Amino acid sequence: MRLSSLFLTTAPFAIAAVLGLVVAQSVADVIEDSSELSIRNSLDDHGLVWAEVHANGLQVFLSGMAPSEAQRFKALSTAGGVVDAARVIDAMKVVDSASIKPPRFSIEILRNDSGISLIGLVPTEMDREKLVANVKSIAGSAPVSDLLQTADYDTPESWVDSVDYAIKALRKLPRSKISVEAGAITVHAMTDSADAKRSLERDLSRSAGHDLKLALDISAPRPVITPFTLRFLIEDGTARFDACSASDAKGQKRILAAAQTAGLQGEATCTIGLGVPSPRWAEAVELAIAAVAELGGGSVTFADADITLAAPEGTNQALFDRVVGELENSLPDLFALHPALPKPKTVESGGTPEFTATLSPEGQVQLRGRLSDELSRSATDSYAKARFGSDSVYVAARLDDTLPGSWPMRVLAGLEALSHLSNGVATVTPDMIAISGKTGKPDASAEISRLLVDKLGENTQFDIHVEYLEKLDPVASIPTPEECEFEISEILKTRKINFEPGSDTPDADAQGVLNDIAEILKLCGEIRMEVGGHTDSQGRESMNEALSQLRAQAVLNALRERRVLTSTFAARGYGESMPVASNETEEGRDANRRIEFKLIRPEPTAIETETTLEIIASEAAENNDGNAVEEETGDTTTDAPEDEAAIEAGAAEEGTQNE
After folding, report:
1. Which of 23, 65, 375, 439 could form a cystine bridge with 444, CB 3.0-4.6 A?
2. Which residues contact residue 572 at a Cβ distance below 8 angstroms, ignoring those fewer than 6 apart?
């Protein structure tokens, strides 16, 4: 009885104690789980997915391999922001930085009418704010998206030069994608015309420097060709195109193959453009070229769907009729054939009327021959002065009221054709317009053909002999940076830029040398060049270095005064550190006191083929594959960090813009 009373008295206390222990353990487990989950989520939100979390009571242990000391400290700070920092136990290790391969830094710059995007990985020590500010100055009111990430590694050699070049190129490219790596640039861009494309390629190549690896992919929209013109002829056994147009690459290939079968030798160009009158254009051209070959010469001219087939003088009438008949029956619908068999020329009592316009290499124009009346002579004189300059035209043409009514229009068309040449002759007769000369335009023959067909009709007979000379081409004739450097060095081999003794003022004899160098540099355009100053070894080394710097800067200032573009030039003083002769003799000291012009060439670096965007895309693909496998096995994955999501969004944006 006494034991029962004791049991009844102690049992409630025992039960309460057990329940208290159970509740306390449950509360501790809840606190552990809550702390661990909260810290885990916070670490993931900050991109610290490498850190592991384990809670033991009130203590929270952080473990894992931190990529850097900064990342380790960031993990501790993040955990300390969720729970009391005193509860956080650091069990993390830091990866040995010497064993980590530096990442490959690169930037993808995307620009269109909607703005500019920067995507990639750059060194932490790079002046990122300056880069973004420069891009914003180019974008104007358009938005700039900065999706760059940084890595704390040394800046690669040539990285700064590559980024500077990319910014300069971006100013010229309103619709472009520029891929930047250390020592390498890839440019994808669009221009408004073929001429703009050619000029831009030349400018970008020239300003890239010798050792910067530059890849250009610049496209131009297809031109609208009106009228859609083609002219093929065989003269004295030689086949050639005066003008050639095609609607696509396949048609271009067919047309050129037909011309080669007809006897065309060497390379020929055929412009792909818009405005073709029929999808069967190439077929019609093939048939017409074959007809010219069968006639043994002559010409065929297409002006949209109108075709003029001109046989050589003296062609057998039966052969002409057969070829014309076969061609008429074979041509696709829509095309209209206008055959022409020239009649033998007869000598007129007063001679064949003729008008001749001659353009000299100096730009002087002489007009001789016959014009219809005083009004026609006044109109011809005014038109020529408008085309070639009021002080460059000399008129010595007589009046002839027996000329045909189309004569004034033929004369004006001949003058307009002559304006496409650098020098040459335009000859107008009642039956023919002949244009010959030299030009700096690669497609001058095609332009003249289209002009004459458009102004005078597809039945007009004309003869074009135009020679393209690269030295007359305002784009192709620009010397390369290496040629500029060589020409300046040739001047300085025999003539020096001397200064007043102990001064940075060029002497009187140096003015002529500076004038000649300035004329060369004006032709060279924007190139990166260093003006280096050198002295002999007399005097203190520090004073010599300062004097050489002042002299190099004085030369640079003198070039600016002569209107040379020097924004890409640099002045540097080397003092006595780079002698080219002995300082023991007066001749040697005189040789060492010099100014040198050298191209600024970035240091060559190894280039990897995979870009930052490609790396990001491949990593994203691997992650997606891993997520798919985990979903199939029932595992869960953590959300991607905000920075990674932003980069993937940028990559998607790039794909959209490229489309």
Report:
1. 439
2. 530, 531, 532, 533, 549, 552
